[in-house]
């Protein structure tokens, strides 16, 4: 009888611990998207700086905002890629190193003098257009 009581108690305890840890996990999971969206949202200052950088650079020789020129229109690019940290990073890398094959066979020239930080601001502006 005593033994049974103990096992009941320990079962209840286990359930409590499990329930508690799964609650903690859910809370953690809920926190992740919140954190992500904070780091993902481009600040207005970055977007404005990116716009100015693009206007000063050679981008406009090949890109217009709304229609395809040599490269895709920036609006088309914005529609293709959600504004996430990952896309800021990978597109910034693509602008710096140049490349081809995503929008056709015409290559984008490399911009090796550009810093990753400035290239990222340009991308933040582009992906804010949609
Ligand atoms: C010589 C012409 C040219 C110049 C200059 C140029 N681009 Fe491009 N850009 C292209 C072409 C062509 C593509 C499509 C490449 C492909 O299909 O992978 C492209 C693609 C892109 C993309 C989308 C990349 C992808 O993988 O989807 C972004 C973003 C971009 N350009 C931004 C810029 C910015 C910012 C500048 C100025 C620093 C710039 N481009 C200058 C021709 C150019």
From TrEMBL:
Alphabetized UniProt keyword annotations: Electron transport, Heme, Iron, Metal-binding, Signal, Transport
Signal peptide span: 1-24
UniProt binding sites for heme c: 59, 63, 108
Post-translational modification summary for this protein: Binds 1 heme c group covalently per subunit.
Residue span, Cytochrome c domain: 45-130
Molecular function, one GO term: electron transfer activity
Classification via SUPFAM superfamilies: Cytochrome c
Keyword Iron set for record: yes
Pfam families noted in UniProt: Cytochrom_C (PF00034)
Superkingdom, taxonomy of origin: Bacteria
Annotated InterPro entries: Cyt_c-like_dom, Cyt_c-like_dom_sf, Cyt_c_ID
PROSITE patterns to which the protein is assigned, alphabetical: CYTC
Protein name in UniProt: C-type cytochrome
